[in-house]
Amino acid sequence: ETGVTQSPTHLIKTRGQQVTLRCSSQSGHNTVSWYQQALGQGPQFIFQYYREEENGRGNFPPRFSGLQFPNYSSELNVNALELDDSALYLCASSRRGRETQYFGPGTRLLVL
Amino acid sequence: GQQLNQSPQSMFIQEGEDVSMNCTSSSIFNTWLWYKQDPGEGPVLLIALYKAGELTSNGRLTAQFGITRKDSFLNISASIPSDVGIYFCAGQLEGGSEKLVFGKGTKLTVNP
Fold first, then answer.
1. Which residues of A touch B21 (CB under 8 A)?
2. How many CB atoms lie within 10 A of CB A80?
3. Which residue of A has its CA nearest to B100?
4. Does A74 contact chain B (CB < 8 Å)?
5. Has residue B1 got a pLDDT over 70?
6. CB B8 within 8 A of CB B87
């Protein structure tokens, strides 16, 4: 059984740029959630995707957007990057109706 | 937004000692999850709790879902050096929201 994978592992961008992060869900899972984790904090929910549609969103601006594909993999896109967007971005997958979420290793984003 | 109060913030213990940490909230949760996160990695699921009063063990780890559904604790018995890391509680709120709300974490240091 393949776990959750994310790419890239690390990324450096400059303010104002755009970034795309990718996530492959665990085998058998159909739901993907994205979280932002600032240094020294717990993960904060960004949004969740199920059946290729957004299914719940946290307190993040519209410049954070996402996609889910038919194979349940997902992308997180962030436009007009700001310095405060520097964080570890975590993807978690789950099976709809089961609350247990399994996390990937994360993508470390640094905005300069 | 919803808050989970996790305590203690950090712990310094000797190898072989038992550890206890907890999370409380003013909100009611349907699910409690405990994760461990090592530096630069994603959270790894330790224990999942689905019913009020449930007591579940995973090796040396034991966790309980509080009767009021507003709290949970995690115990680690006979700690070993590899227990070092940050432990997070996470809950799914009553009402069907799919997002997980996280505590700020408990940083555990084990001295050999």
1. none
2. 11
3. A45
4. no
5. no
6. no
